[in-house]
Here is the input.
Amino acid sequence: MTPDSQKIGVIGALFDRLVYQNTDTAQFLARQAIDISKNLQMPAEEANGWYKVGMSYAIKGNYPSAIEAFLTTHEIFSSIDHQTGIAFAEKGLGNIHQMMGNMEEAISYFRKSLTRYRIDGDSGRINAAINSLALGFQQAEMLDSAVFYFKERIALSDQMGYLSAQASSLNNLGSAYKAQERYDLAEAHFIQSLLIRREQKALKYEALVLGNLADLYRIQKKYAESAIAFQESIDIREQIGDRRGVALNSNRLAQTLMEIGDYSGARKASEKSASIAQELGFLDYELDAVGRLKNIYQASGDYQRAYLASERFSILKDSILNVEKTGQIAEMETKYDVQLKEQQLDLQQKEISLLEEKNRVQARLKFVLIAAGALLLSLLGLVLNRYQMKRRNEKELTDKNEKIHLINREIRTINKELERKMLRAQMDPHFIFNSLNSIQHFITINEKELAIRYLSKFAKLIRRVLDNSISDRVPLSDELSLLEDYMELEELRLNHSFSHQVEIDRKIDLHNTEVPFLIIQPYVENAIKHGLKQSARPGKLKIKLEDGGEHLRCYIEDNGIGRAASKALAEARVHQSHGMSVTRKRLEALNNANENQTLVEIFDLKNENGEAVGTQVALTIPYDLN
Here is the structure.
């Protein structure tokens, strides 16, 4: 083994240690391993390096780049007919599509991976591949298929003596049966999983199964059994230091106790949840607990505590909505910059006025000197001296005028830039406000688990928005990642009433192509809100990016109700959205500042009978935005 080949092994070990702690450094190491593997002509190691690059992109949430890396892995392994490596790459691609919510693609890749592993005959890999496929079917709500593969994995794990895998699949199978409302089977499999976890003394997983079992009892209105199971889960989580789990299950216990009228127990559980959630900074858990405490205190006549809980509830709501303040602060900063520049301009104009007045005085003095010179030749020297002074003043005035002209031109440029910033400061709160409305919707209909999932995705999305909000332009890969997060949120909020597809021209360099920040999202939002949401048929949203030579072409196409029907609905609606108005103003400001124009075209899609079947928006974005 050569020193360079040994170095690849060392780099791989370092990658595994750093990938979740310092992802950028881990990716740098993976690319070093790729370069070494190429030089040594070791394609399998090169493919493994690309797989690690894909992992790092996935951890950072850059799913398009992760897919590119995994496809490269697949291509290299295919070139050397490395079937196990191909299956490895297909499993990675399935995982990314599952994270993106593209369950049809995910399940397809998981099937291919499992087929290759079955041919290879490695029981351990087959076991893991079956689990991935079963979980994919469960996430896609194809529960019969999920049950089939969970059963297969349980049988295989039993043959192999994999108790942990068997217990995990028993728990997952119980969840699938619960979703099918086959409650007796769900209970039986939860209990089997629980017995194995207790035999293993795996406290963390024992607590997890107890929570699932308690939730099942709550759905069946077996409130006493539910409360006991929730309390056992809480006790174990306290024992292992899982304070987040204590807060979550204390909230669920309180909800169960409320059902049986044990308001004292519900109060204690809610107070515990609120205290831990406040300490850990889990605002959603604390909001849930404090809202329940407010009602309990009020019902028991403890109006002082009810008032304090109500005050805390309002503070928590304000904290969650505080993101909106970011846009207001940005607008204030912009106004301050404008005011400062205006003050500087006023000072310069006053200086010009003084110089002009000085010039007028010099002109009058010149007339006097010329008249006196005609009469008194002895005063010629004085006249010449005054004339020279006048020329110097004129030159000074000319220089000042030229300077003011340059300053005015700079001020106009700055004003255009500030105008674009103010429009962007308006867009970000508009975008955030719509997402917060979705979270509020889930909380209102008491879908707490969905609200938690939605809030987690929303937090990641907000972080992307804030990270990029200081830049006028961002890499296309970042814009697409943010857009992907937004579409996932909307699919979740609208109960998967539509699906989306993104097609990218391979000639486009996603990382070195920059576009105005949030330039595509308003049109996607408009397609969902005014086209797909109003349609009775399953919605389809397609985003296609093409390389147009000197510009990028972006098509946003939906199969919604069309512009005419959407306009009729909008005229009957009391509240009108300002998102597209802000976007149009933003494009006007952008085009005013650039020679290369960003164009927007809208086309009505119709069938053979001339009936509306959707809308297409075509954006032409120049690569060179000077």
About this structure: The chain is about 75% helix and 10% strand.
